[in-house]
Design a protein that fits this description.
With 725 residues, the protein is α+β, with helices and mostly antiparallel strands. The protein is 50% helix and 15% strand. Strands 1, 2, 3, 4, 5 and 6 form a six-stranded mixed beta sheet that branches. Strand 14 and strand 15 form a beta hairpin. The protein is elongated, with a radius of gyration of 41 Å.
């Protein structure tokens, strides 16, 4: 401990204050802190913050608050220099050289948290989704602090601001108070920093609801002398009873009254001021856990316990590791008294929270700061299991797991809303988290105002803006590693392509079924009944089954039942009507006695020939079709001449096959060409091997001339080597 301190004349800091500042530190660290105070005083001069408080006074107040919870010297130095980034040109380098890298990193981390101020203030003063956003902001503050001492520095800064505002009324203090109650008091609560939590709550409550604050404060003050006399007598009596029970060296004292906690109990339990049990309260500090339960027995023997007002937080600690026995009793005047019982170790944790825990760990291990902080941060994340404020426990358990693994980042929308994402997420993940449609239409992204690739990993605190097209869909490239980190976003992209493929299959199945029904003379068949007979749940399911070849012509005829197939001889007799050498005139798809062969898919005005089938009428093939030639050799008597009628109309399906040197965007270029030519693509099949892409397109066309034109255009696409039917 430093025994001699030097006052800071320029700021008028008294010796007693400086003694508090260095309390608990070794002499060398204390002297370093005093030197920093002098340096900070000269650096800041008479500069003031936006609230009107001088910059140096704010930093000194922060450091004193941290000294009050026994935080280390680096933290107190960082508190004194909290605003150095606003006063130094090359702040981080200067601070590292003068006060050490650890201090510079703490101040840089504090500056990052300070940058969230517009978000936190806008959230608590907004009108919509306030609860969800305040919760996510609390998590964001913790996630952005690589060292948990940065969070403690921020809490100390806010406490000092509220202390200043308590003495200096400003227009913005009500908003600052609401922000403090929504964001910072719950953070202090989760960390177990009770002293800071209670002070933030009471000071903020004083500004948000001054009338209620004054009412409770007045009620507490009205009977202060009577209450203090009762507490003094109760302490004396309880000490005597504890000593007689063999509980030596027990400490008993009155517990401080916190106005905000009294108001919370009154509000949550719908109680009057007189019904709040902890207006009069005692705390008993003992040496061992067994003494806690022995002391509880003494209290209950001395006064009548109130039913339902006992909590054992020793056997069942709170989520932030708070441990104590709580009971309430009725004393001689018929009024309630709350009693808390705990050991010295439990009390250190309850009063000093996370700081006391760390100092205990470091004192015994002798480990260097860097390795020790890893353990501290892991312990901090466990504290996120605190659930008292969360209504949906199942949802919170899931969030707790994510926080414990540190796999969550928090980014900001252009509108100032905070979005949580799995660590490693990209702008595409962000877009799909906002809305599926925005994800599908995403074409670019800006992060903190700069254009970035869509596979850029995001970091907490960044502001993300999506550049979207008016319409369109995702790219299959997005399913490659690096573009989408979250499984939810990947599923949305896969679902989009699945729907697209389903729509193509529906169109293909509808076309086939329509043609088959027309050929069988059943164009007006009831499709709902037909689907039911074929075991399909719906008409769309029937179309899909047809497209997947799960239903063929034979099954379709059986389902129709009333249409019996004609004999081949009858078909031949009915088909060969025209006088020109028995030649068949094929009139589009409306001739119920003919069908266009699916193997070669003839279109007007290909050279064609007919083949009389068994039960399916005349199958019309292209003359050069290999299947037709083979059948003609085996069954020449079934071959008849065929020609297209001049009245031929309708849409015809044909295949185009091509080979090309594989390259990125090849399929896109061909698809755009077909779209420009207004060609409907029924199906696409692509196989790539050894750098060669082989594609087969099934197209709907008007005639062979259109097919030839399309084939010629595709042949001109860069990389295409060959196009053929």
């Amino acid at each position: 401990m430093v025994s001699v301190v030097h006052a800071l004349p320029s700021q008028g800091v008294d010796t007693a204050t400086l003694e508090r500042l260095i309390h608990g530190l070794p002499a060398s660290e204390g002297q370093r802190l005093l030197s920093c105070a002098q340096w900070a005083s000269e650096l800041y001069g008479d500069a003031k913050l936006g609230t009107g408080e001088t910059t140096f006074a704010h930093g000194l107040g922060m450091a004193l608050i941290l000294a009050g919870v026994d935080l280390d010297a680096d933290s107190r130095v960082a508190a004194l220099l909290f605003a150095a980034f606003d006063f130094l040109a090359d702040a981080e380098a200067t601070l590292s050289k003068q006060w050490g890298k650890a201090v510079a990193e703490l101040i840089a981390g504090l500056a990052r948290l300070k940058s969230l101020r517009p978000l936190t203030l806008a959230t608590v003063t907004g009108k919509s989704d306030v609860l969800a956003q305040t919760e996510i902001l609390r998590k964001m503050i913790l996630a952005m602090a690589a060292d948990v001492r940065v969070v403690l520095l921020r809490l100390a800064s806010r406490t000092q601001t509220l202390r200043w505002l308590a003495e200096h009324a400003t227009p913005e203090r009500a908003d600052i108070a609401r922000e403090s109650l929504a964001i910072y008091a719950p953070l202090a609560n989760r960390l177990g920093i009770w002293q800071i939590k209670w002070e933030i709550e009471d000071l903020a409550f004083r500004f948000t609801d001054p009338d209620t604050y004054k009412m409770i404060a007045k009620r507490l003050d009205e009977r202060r002398l009577e209450r203090e006399a009762f507490i003094a007598a109760a302490i004396t009596r309880l000490k005597e009873e504890l000593a007689q029970a063999g509980i030596e060296n027990a400490e008993v004292y009155g517990r401080p009254k916190h106005i905000y906690s009294i108001w919370n109990k009154m509000r949550q339990k719908n109680l009057s001021f007189e019904e709040v049990y902890d207006v009069r309260a005692l705390r008993i500090i003992v040496g061992e856990v067994k003494d806690c339960y022995a002391a509880l027995g003494v209290v209950h023997a001395l006064w009548q316990p109130i039913h339902g007002e006992f909590d054992d937080y020793i056997s069942h600690p709170k989520g932030n590791f708070y441990r104590s026995l709580h009971t309430a009793v009725i004393v001689e005047d018929g009024k309630p008294l709350e009693v808390q019982i705990r050991t010295h170790e439990m009390h250190r944790h309850a009063e000093l929270g996370i700081a006391a825990h760390w100092r205990y760990k470091e004192a015994g291990s002798g480990a260097k700061a860097n390795s020790a902080y890893d353990e501290k941060i892991a312990w901090l994340r466990e504290l996120l299991s605190w659930r008292d404020e969360i209504a949906d426990s199942a949802a919170w358990v899931e969030q707790m797991k994510r926080a414990a693994l540190d796999d969550t980042i928090y980014v900001v929308t252009p509108a100032g809303k905070v979005i949580d994402l799995p660590a490693g997420s990209t702008p595409l993940d962000f877009a799909y988290r906002i809305h599926s449609d925005l994800g599908h239409r995403c074409r670019g992204a800006k992060v903190d105002g700069q254009l970035v690739p869509l596979n850029t990993p995001l970091k907490s605190g960044q502001k993300v803006e999506i550049i979207a097209a008016k319409s369109g869909g995702p790219s299959r490239d997005w399913l490659a590693p690096g573009y989408l980190h979250s499984s939810r976003a990947r599923q949305k992209v896969k679902a989009w392509f699945a729907r697209l493929e389903e729509q193509e299959s529906l169109a293909q199945g509808r076309l086939w079924l329509t043609k088959e029904l027309e050929r069988m003379g059943c164009a007006g068949a009831n499709l709902e009944e037909l689907a039911q007979k074929l075991g399909c749940k719906s008409v769309d399911a029937l179309f899909l089954a047809a497209a997947r070849n799960e239903i063929g012509a034979h099954a379709l005829r059986q389902a129709l039942q009333r249409h019996a197939p004609a004999a081949p001889e009858e078909i031949l007799t009915r088909a060969a009507r025209p006088a020109q050498g028995g030649q068949i005139l094929v009139v589009g798809v409306d001739n119920l006695l003919t069908q266009l062969a699916r193997c070669c898919k003839p279109v007007p005005f290909d050279a064609i020939g007919g083949f009389v089938t068994r039960g399916k009428g005349v199958s019309v093939h292209r003359i050069e079709c290999a299947n037709f030639r083979q059948m003609a050799r085996r069954y020449p008597e079934r071959v008849i001449e065929a020609a297209w009628s001049e009245q031929t109309s309708g849409r015809f399906v044909s295949d185009l096959a091509l080979e090309a040197n594989d390259r990125q965007g090849l399929l896109r270029d061909i698809s755009e060409l077909l779209t420009k030519e207004r060609i409907n693509v029924v199906a696409v099949n692509t196989v790539t091997r050894n750098g060669i892409a082989r594609m087969r397109f099934t197209l709907e066309l008007n005639d062979a001339a259109q097919l030839a034109r399309v084939a010629k255009l595709i042949g001109e696409v860069p990389g295409v080597v060959e196009v053929r039917r």
